[in-house]
Amino acid sequence: MNADDVLAIYRGLAAENVPVWIDGGWCVDALLGRRTREHADLDLAVAREHARRLGELLAQWGYAPRPRQDSTDWNYVVAAGGGATVDVHVFEFDDQGHNVYGIEYPKDSLTGTGVIAGQEVRCVAAEWMFRFKTAYPPKDKDLADVRALAERYGFEIPATHRPARADPQPDRT
Questions:
Q1: pLDDT, tens only, 88-106
Q2: Global confidence as pTM
Q3: Do 18 and 57 touch, CB atoms closer than 8 A?
Q4: Domains and CATH numbers, the chain
Q5: Which CA distances in Å does 130 have to 4, 148, 149, 154?
Q6: Residue 7 in contact with residue 51, Cβ under 8 Å?
Q7: Widest distance between CA atoms in the chain
Q8: Is 83 left (phi over 0), alpha (psi -120 to 50) or beta?
């Protein structure tokens, strides 16, 4: 999934009045304003009221469901023939801003903006993206994302996400 693919989807959805927020690795890159690594997919957060239309549009654009064991109505993957995948995260807030369905985004987490290839996009807010990225055992890409967000925004990296130090060599003098 490259930046042109991401922006084609983002702009296409905006043209159809389907608001989405970029999540995951592309969110990190948007918050940093630069591409830091390759991305296998695009993670999108969408309000439940727009989820059906999002699914219809992605289907029109050649995306079909890619069932997984953990697929649900609120968290599923669609894939295009060329291999591009979109991981859809559906949520719903009540009138008081409490999450009542789907992915449990805190309401203020969907207030970020970032830049992908010169285009401003809505995304998960930096503080929340950092919290999300440090809430599970990290892979190498997660460590890099956490380090980059910490450097850019001044967040303190938790011990679980700091690079491992080499054991000191014994003094042989």
A1: 999 999 999 999 999 999 9
A2: 0.91
A3: yes
A4: 3-159 (3.30.460.40)
A5: 25, 10, 7, 11
A6: no
A7: 72
A8: left
